[in-house]
Amino acid sequence: MxxxxxxxxxxxxxELTWNEVPRPEGDETPPGExxxxxxxxxxxxxxxxxxxxxxxxxMTRPYHxxxxxxxxxxxxxxxxxxxxxxxxxxxxxxxxGSSGVWRCVTDVKxxxxxxxxxxxxxxxxxxxxxxxxxxQEVPRPEGDTAPPGEETVIWRxxxxxxxxxxxxxxxxxxxxRPPYHxxxYVLEGQVLVTEPSGTVHDVGPxxxxxxxxxxxxxxxxxxxxxxxxxxxxxx
Length: 235
Description:
This protein has two domains: 15-127, Jelly Rolls (Sandwich); 136-140 and 147-232, Jelly Rolls, CATH 2.60.120. The chain has strands spanning 8-10, 19-20, 33-39, 45-52, 55-60, 64-71, 74-77, 83-86, 91-94, 99-104, 108-115, 125-127, 136-137, 150-156, 162-169, 172-176, 181-188, 191-194, 200-203, 208-211, 217-221, 225-232. The chain is globular and about 60 Å long. The chain contains no helices and 22 strands.
């Protein structure tokens, strides 16, 4: 898909066009489907949703992928037999070079983001959404008197260009001008994102918010917000 520099929201209840994901030769299990929401101008960063019914098959990652499970239970079994199990709200990290067996224990739906890279960091792992995370206070702009936000970084590529984590903050209002591409899956809360043109995006739980590098808007959260975010810093 061509690069779109505009702010966009993919609503949780939107009618989406799902595309069948190609299967390896000889794979007779029910195919997966995905829908892509965003692609960076250099084509190295993409994000969207994926779903597949119960199945099992070999997995080899030719790219970095991070995902948060929306529905269902998924497992990745490493070549040594270690099993990484992820359910709703859990983050599954499968860097380039990861391999093993992927299982959809139940029907699975996930939000995913991919970074095409030559870097390898093999070894899948899971961060449970309800685990005790290392939350850090986010610096506030000068004059911002609202209670500070907090974030925790789940994973970062070695070059620092591909990063994911959780962010949370109470009701607040302020300008946003990301110096990178950010795609976020909102877990809790309601936000109004207003562009300089006056266009207002109403964002809530289950929605995906896309704020490309160079976009600008006023962020106004009407309630405490928690989101899973992925950013990509293009060269």
